[in-house]
Input
Amino acid sequence: MPETGNPPLLADAAGNANANANGSTEARRQVTLLKTGALQNAILNSANFSSIATDEKGVIQIFNVGAERMLGYAAADVLNKITPADISDPREVIARAKALSVELGTQIEPGFEALVFKASRGIEDIYELTYIRKDGSRFPAVVSVTALRDDQRAIIGYLLIGTDNTARKQIEAERQHLLEAQEETNKRLQQTNVTLQVSEEKLAVTLNSIGDAVIATDADGRVTLLNPLAQKLTGWTQAAATGRPVDEIFHIINKETRLPATIPVIATLAHGTIQGLANHTVLIAHDGSECDIADSCAPIRDRDGQVIGAVLVFRDVTGEYAVQQALRDQQFYTRSLIESNIDALMMADPSGTITDVNQQMEALTGCTRDELIGTPFKNYFTDPERAEAGIKRVLSEKKVTDYELTANHKRNGETVVSYNAATFYSADGKLQGVFAAARDITERKRLDQVLLDKNTELESAKLVAEKANLAKSNFLSSMSHELRTPLNAILGFAQLLETGSPTPTDAQGVRLNQIIKAGWYLLDLINEILDLAVIESGKLSLSQEAVSLTEVMRECQAMIEPQAQQRGIQMNFLPFDSTWFINADQIRIKQVLINLLSNAIKYNCAQGTVRVACTAITPERIRISIKDSGMGLPAEKLAQLFQPFNRLGQEAGSEEGTGIGLVVAKQLVELMGGTIGVESTVGMGSDFWVEIIRDVMPQLAAGNAMPTEFAPQAQGNAALRTLLYVEDNPANLMLVEQIIEDHPHVRLLSASDGNLGIALARAHRPDVILMDINLPGISGFQVLTILREDPLTARIPVLAISANAMPRDIEKGLEAGFFRYLTKPIKVNEFLVALDQALALAETGSDGAVIPEPA
Output
């Protein structure tokens, strides 16, 4: 096969045409064939296209001049040797195979098949491909592929026509570069526009928000801009002012002369310099209103530095002038305060050098203000080192008080002063120095000595008073016992006579009633006087704890009901929350409430009522209110209610009283952290109330529930029980003997001292022991200790009975281990209840007696 010229396939076609033609037809066909051949040769030999023809397997059969020029191969280098895939970029061939496999849904192998697959299926195929020259260089080509077929449409080869795409690629790249450059230019232009717009907006916002008024003009001094504040101060709007001469808008005069002032815009435009107004310039607004102003005017220049306008900035300084005047007034006022101070005042810098003084400092030192300023503070005191130490101390501690120094007057001697000082600072927190005040304390020193002497005298008097108070307390304690002991016999035997057999006659009953009544009254008087004395001496001991309000009110009701029934008074205890607890001394709170309830009954009207209510007035406090229907009290008597021994005019009345019950109640309530008060209306009654601190319910151990009531033990046909009474007073012993005469199931053993009592207890092992506290030899407490240490007597219940009836005495007895602590004079019912409870405890043989409910 020749390297150039007509391809064999085309020559065969021409030969066949020549063989079949005849005559003129043959001549025309020959001409046509020659033209077709010439056209084919022109195409195949064109230097502008690469024409590569292959057989059906892809082996190159034709490689025209254009292909040689583009690829650098001679036809002999490639004919019957390689396929077009061998001169193509292998990566692109592989990529094309993958892409066609996906597109056509069939597996296409990389190589020549990938280049002609579409053409082999009759699909027009033009694609871009990188050809590799013989020297290894590359260039982009656009390739058109056509399948060559015979008369039976069978593929006999492929024709690949390629054009060098380098120039087009370069043009496209340049165009893309131009497009990108244009796009970048457009972006920058947009950014510039946005920046300009933002700048304009910021300028507008700035001009609208700054605290100064702004007027801009052109080179001829005509207004071009007014910000809102300028419009407000001048009274001109932007629309009305634009284009007008600035002196029409900015009308100013001199404050003192009221003559027109020169507008700085004119000088700025003429000279291109910054101008400002003198002080005391007044701006007259469009409506005639005035304000003091301060201003500054600057030129506006173009890029060439030419003045094209001016900007005038001004502000209303009316308020500033007022502040300056106020500041001058304040400085004068402050100076007046400093000079009017009775103390010598001075200021010093951190080194201790005086910077200012008042006239009192001049008087203290005998030096003038000019002489003092600029000199060391320490020079004016008898002890310069101590004075300097005072300055250093205030600098380190920020403040010094009552630092004693002795000032040295130039002519008149020395003065003891109290030096008080503190540091002071500038607005930015920088230390400026020390502000000090020195006060003459000569007289105070003299008074201090007098006070010291008086305190010494008072201390001696206090010791004497404490000794006297101790003697009084001992006397009261002794008197309590001595008074109660005979009262025990009086009241005890009187109660026995009243309830004994034979029954007293009516006359005897009246007399016994008077004896008992007088005895109990005397006992109340003794108790209240002792309570008041103990409270006033500060020796009262309270045992505050969480106390059930329900239990307290139930006990008070039980104790007061008989008195109310006797007088025909109806008692109304209103219901309240049974879970309420108060923080109080249980004995003392009952003492207070019984006093108030008793008064409400005594001073009530016939067939009157008493209403008792408990309310939680706050989450922390509970109020107990006792309201009666009596005559009430006027305001002047209410003010005297809590005065000792003041019965408010009831001394001559039928009701007995001491006039100290309310005083004791008030002091007890206040000692428990509560308050007591009263509201009263004449003719309608009085409402006494106690407010006490609320407490929480204590957590009780299981099986240790709080009893609701105590009642005597029902005896029935009980076996004979033994009571041992240890008592040295025959009258008291006789009283107890007669009390238990009506109780045949109880036999009485007696001992006159503690040692005999111990011996009888060990020998007879009684069911219950009644123990006096004040015994000859050893006391009742000592006897109890011995009995508890002996296994034979350790579990016998022991009841204490004593005339020592102070609350602390009772607490002490119960803490020691007595089952109950009874006080003299004996209350028969109380004694019998305690005895039955002790007998019940002895029968159960346990530490916790089970007390049955009343039958």
About this structure: The radius of gyration is 63 Å. Confidence is low (pLDDT under 50) at residues 1-6, 9-17, 700-717, 846-855.
